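QA checklist item 7 of 12: single-chain prediction sanity check.
[x] sequence parsed
[x] length recorded as 328
[x] structure emitted
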Amino acid sequence: MNSGNPSALRHLLDPIRSDLVSVEEEIARMLSTRSDALRTLLEHVSRFAGKRLRPALTLLAGRMFGRVDGEHYRVGAIVELIHTATLVHDDILDESSMRRRVETINNKVGNETAVLLGDYIFATCFKEAALLEDRFASRYLSEIVAIVCRGEILQVHHRNDFEMTEEVYFRIIEEKTAALYAAALRCGAHIAHASEEQGLALASFGTKIGSAFQIIDDILDLTGEESAVGKSLGTDIEKAKMTLPLMRLRDAAGMADASQLQEALTRGKADARRELVPILEKYGAIQSARETAFQLVDEARQLLDGLPDVPERAYLAHIADYVLSRDR
């Protein structure tokens, strides 16, 4: 199966399609409001809806251990809404104008309203997490919001840090991206009465595929086409963020090419990515970063070996493959 193909991924998730519909119903319930102004904004944000990978992970983790119920649907909805709130805030930080081929909230109505909308969605997540019957999931999801925000703050703190280490980079992506994958899986397994060891194995799987997802995202920000990816690109350079491919270039390049990279980051122009791509290819920086993503996915797949040999395990392995081969 070519899991990188979006239609192939949709086919892969067909066995949990009815469960995903129930997650959508929970999202609609959580975001229902009597305010016309707020409803208009939330309807616009709903157009950012992607592949629902995170709630799918919650559902697959539950099914792996024998059952999925209303608590899984609520957790899946909360996880997806935490992700949605981060997208709204990310677009403000990156001054993005397009997200999944839709105008961003900040571009549509301004930063003030976008900040408040992201905060509103976060607040909704806190409220819904507090109402979960499973106290572990309730506490964990509340903590995840803080972890994700901490990762974002760390990334902003290291803007213009040309000497940022890979250790810091991986801490950033594990907190701002991968933590939500880990939470989706661990909560789904816990609610289905998996052992702590099994839940931790799935959380580690989520951390690794989430980190790989972000590395591929950082590569696409440099090499992708906006018409295909469906969002503003070049924002990492524009905001002077050192991502893995840029760090691999920095460490391998000669003085002149390293200076050109630093100058591009200093100028902060999104279109500078075009002039950097040949240099990235010259030093194999893109391929080096991609190989790291492949290694993470390989390690993730190995974590599945000790889990129940059920169809859901194979589905998770295919999702890991999709992370590597996606183009959007």
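[x] summary fact logged: The chain has a mean pLDDT of 92.
[ ] second reviewer sign-off
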